[in-house]
Amino acid sequence: MKKNTMETIKSLNENELPIGKVRIEIPVSQVIWMYEALKGANFNENDYEKGKLLEYMENGKIIEYSAKKGNATEKATAARTAVAKKKIDNAINILRMEGRPITHYAISKTSGVAFQTVKKYVTL
Question: Which of 32, 51, 59, 75 has its CA 20 to 30 A from that of 107?
């Protein structure tokens, strides 16, 4: 599942919700505020999910990202993007030389790049 806003997630039916966990980035000050608010709340038997959230917050792990890791991620993404764009350009040239129609689908099949990636980088 792609990154979603809470409105998108809340609009899904229960059977459409993603399986697994959702990771969100929240400033530490807001996490502390949420924890204190949940900790001070009175739960009844119908508030199982709120109780589970409090439990996750008490037993969760803190993930810290270093600037070095962020820079490495950006560099790797830039490299993958450059490779994809080069494959797309080559595929367009091949299609032109063969006289075939240039469509997102044809570019995707010829280049081996995912259809959505082609749509992202090619405007026809």
Answer: 75
Taken in order 32, 33, 38, 42, is the CA torsion positive or negative? positive
pLDDT tens digits along 49-94:
666 777 777 777 666 777 788 889 899 999 999 999 999 999 999 9
Closest CA to 33 of 57, 60, 9: 57
Residue 96, CB-side half-sphere exposure with 13 Å CA sphere:
6
Q: What is the DSSP string of 18-58?
A: PSS-------HHHHHHHHHHHHTSPP-TT-HHHHHHHHHHH
- Please provide the average confidence, as pLDDT, over all residues in the chain: 81
Can you say whether residue 84 is alpha, beta or left, with left for phi > 0 and alpha for psi between -120 and 50 degrees?
A: alpha
Residue with tokens 């502390």: 32
